[in-house]
Amino acid sequence: MWKITKLGDVCKIQSGNSIPVKEKEVLYRNVNEGLPYVGTKDVGFDGVIDYENGVRIPPNHSSKFRLSKKNSILVCGEGGSAGRKIAFSNKDCHFVNKLFSISTGSEMVSKYVYYYTLSNYFQNQFKKAMHGLIGGVSLSKIKGFQITYPPFSEQQRIVAKLDATFTEIDKAIATKKFNKEKIKKIENSSLKKLLNGNFSNKKIGDICELVYGKGLSKNKRITEKNGVPVYGANGIKSYTTNPLYQKQSIIVGRKGSAGELQWVDKPFWALDVSYYVVTDDKQIKLKYLYYLLKMQNLPKLAKGVKPGINRNDVYNINIKLPLINEQIKIIENLEKIFEQNSILLRLYKKQITNYLALKSAILAKELKHKAA
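The structure assignment produced for this chain is given below.
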């Protein structure tokens, strides 16, 4: 007989707590003993927890921090990754206040609850419970989520089946992700090979200007997609009626997604969290500069609590600059490489999406709930 009850009635759910900044700096930096202190950044979208790169809590301070026991589930409860970062923890750890730890009682198989949190049934409840400007779910709300479950032995059978099936699917997904990374490495290799010839030495500041974007009030923003696109640091945020710049350009993220690049081939508006590029066509082709900037890995220049890039740091980067005719030839070669790779990347993305949809369908079937 399957039962429906509140998650908080069959599981212990707790939120973590944070380390005071002064204590983190003095007590916990470079500490090798004690338990890992897991943050949201340590929980991957693939369900893997990085226990090694965060701080650790020494045993003599562990009583100050909540403990998530081995075989618990960690769920991100706040921010952009809320409800999307979920992992099955295979060791004891402490955890931040933006994570929930779910551990099971005698009625429940812990891995069954983990699979439940991955299901659409849990995800839909999570989305409906989200609140606040940054998005989050309260501890009381998640305790009230419904869970459908069978007897203990049936949970064990379902978990064994899902473990076996998902292991094979995850292997296929991992292969596709590996191939995507391989393509990125090929692209980077091609950029370095073609853009580092025996050309004139220049600095990026010699060949272009990074112009500050400009804020745009809400009453000047529209939703019509046939309007002028308004770019932030990592994509189109809205539309407007009049452009800030009429020509082709490159948007460079200045704050937030600092260093991210966007190619723009029609009139646009760039917000003040970004720069847009202005060049002299007689000295450099804009598309050649785009590939040059792509090779520099600009996000590594980001600094500060809210990562930002100073354009002077970009200007000081040394580059090799060929004559215009040679630039055109290099652009043609790179365009062919990137177009072929783009086709493959779209294929891999579609295949990964299909695998994830398959996992969702299998979960729905095994968890015996129409909304699962």
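Interim note for the steering committee: The first helix runs from residue 7 to 10. The chain has ten helices and 19 strands.
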